[in-house]
Specification:
- This protein is mostly helical.
- It contains 1 helix and no strands.
Amino acid sequence: MGPAEVLALIERLQQQATADVQDLAPRGRELTLAQAKIDKLNLELAQPRRWQSDAKIEAMTAARTPRWPQCPRPGHGGRAVLGSDLPG
């Protein structure tokens, strides 16, 4: 293979590479747009799951929270403060 043939081969390969890039560019944009749509749908689908999870956590926290404030006085053993427990 002589130098002229090598130069012709290089030229042909460069043209082919340029044509491939031009063919792939629109596909790359299409894939980027499709991925953006998929990401948006994933976020929309995750939102109700987050709300459900937040509601469960809130319910569990509310179940563990005492209904009456704890007495700060020592010796009460942390009993709730009721009207009959108040001095006066």
